[in-house]
């Protein structure tokens, strides 16, 4: 390659790419319009993902001079339809507009009556075409949600590596909660000092027991802080449970006590250690646990699963006391998300 030079101080630039090239457009410095269009509708722009190594440069012979780095890439927002104004409509409404400067009862009325006595009122298209931002009203699946959303909860499969806390997520949650974020997080951290893995229902109960520490805040807001403390599994023995960052239950044989046993259906699911009778039986029976982790049974053996199946099949398990709006162990697992 020839000689490469960079300006002493690179400028931060915005790049606008236009269909058909820039000759067909007019840029006023504040807005963009089609050059030959009789309707001077502003063309709205949206930001696209920018390559971190995109630069603007010029080449003369063997010399390349870099002027700046692109930090914003803009493209026109596509419309789902466009209705052009017919020529006869353009003429009619142009004449009407000019006559509006005079007396409405004379010039404007005369022209309107003369034209419409033998012709229909010319069609006038909508002043603004539908933009991609409102495609959702047409129920187009590919444009169902055009807003960028941040998923708070880190969800992994049982075979995946344990994730680390994401500073970007914590920043978003901290912004949402405000100055109380730090003290609320400390209270929730105390729960994970008692045990490393929690069902969401257990954490909500903990919240109610410490309601005074959270003042007038609601669980629907405070629970977003959990995404800064713990992650969840989407598969495996700890499915849908909250696991503290830094703790890998697949490496800890004692994590069998946190495993979920689902008897018949999700409404009767429970965590082993939350059922004292079952927990004690498994602890005192060596053949009910194993040293090698299994993605299917965790650190429990098939004998342990058979014991629980037999136990609950032969007895009537009383329904736990619970509000009608909280039907199972995983209720309220769906979290709100924050806008970027």
From TrEMBL:
GO cellular component, one term: transcription factor TFIIIC complex
Taxonomic source organism: Nematocida ausubeli (strain ATCC PRA-371 / ERTm2) (Nematode killer fungus)
Pfam families, sorted: Tau95 (PF09734)
Every Transcription factor IIIC subunit 5 HTH domain range: 144-263
Lineage top rank: taxon: Eukaryota
Region (Disordered): 321-340
Name the record gives this protein: Transcription factor IIIC subunit 5 HTH domain-containing protein
Gene Ontology biological-process annotations: transcription initiation at RNA polymerase III promoter
GO molecular function: RNA polymerase III type 1 promoter sequence-specific DNA binding; RNA polymerase III type 2 promoter sequence-specific DNA binding
């Amino acid at each position: 390659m020839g000689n490469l030079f960079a300006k002493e101080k690179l400028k931060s630039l915005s790049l606008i790419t236009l269909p058909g090239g820039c000759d067909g457009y007019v840029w006023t410095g504040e807005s963009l319009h089609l050059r030959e269009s009789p309707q001077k509708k502003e063309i709205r722009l949206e930001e696209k993902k920018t390559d971190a190594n995109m630069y603007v440069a010029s080449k003369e012979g063997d010399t390349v001079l870099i002027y700046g780095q692109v930090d914003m890439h803009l493209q026109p927002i596509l419309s789902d339809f466009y209705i052009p104004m017919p020529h006869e409509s353009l003429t009619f409404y142009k004449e009407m507009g000019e006559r509006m400067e005079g007396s409405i009862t004379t010039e404007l009325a005369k022209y309107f009556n003369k034209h419409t006595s033998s012709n229909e009122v010319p069609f006038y298209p909508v002043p603004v075409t539908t933009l991609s931002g409102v495609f959702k009203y047409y129920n187009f699946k590919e444009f169902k949600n055009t807003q960028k959303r941040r998923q708070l909860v880190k969800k992994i499969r049982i075979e995946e590596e344990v994730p680390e806390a994401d500073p970007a997520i914590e920043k978003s949650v901290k912004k949402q909660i405000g100055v109380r974020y730090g003290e609320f997080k400390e209270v929730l951290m105390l729960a994970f000092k008692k045990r490393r893995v929690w069902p969401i229902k257990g954490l909500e109960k903990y919240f109610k027991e410490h309601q005074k520490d959270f003042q007038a805040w609601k669980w629907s807001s405070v629970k977003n802080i959990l995404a800064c403390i713990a992650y969840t599994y989407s598969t495996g023995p700890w499915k849908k449970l909250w696991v503290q960052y830094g703790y890998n239950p697949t490496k800890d044989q004692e994590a069998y006590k946190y495993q979920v046993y689902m008897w018949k259906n999700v409404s009767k699911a429970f965590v082993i250690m939350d059922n004292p009778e079952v927990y004690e039986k498994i602890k005192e029976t060596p053949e009910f646990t194993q040293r090698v982790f299994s993605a299917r049974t965790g650190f429990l053996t098939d004998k342990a699963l058979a014991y629980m199946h037999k136990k609950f099949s032969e007895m009537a398990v009383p329904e736990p006391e619970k509000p009608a709006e909280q039907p199972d162990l995983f209720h309220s697992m769906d979290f709100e998300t924050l806008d970027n």
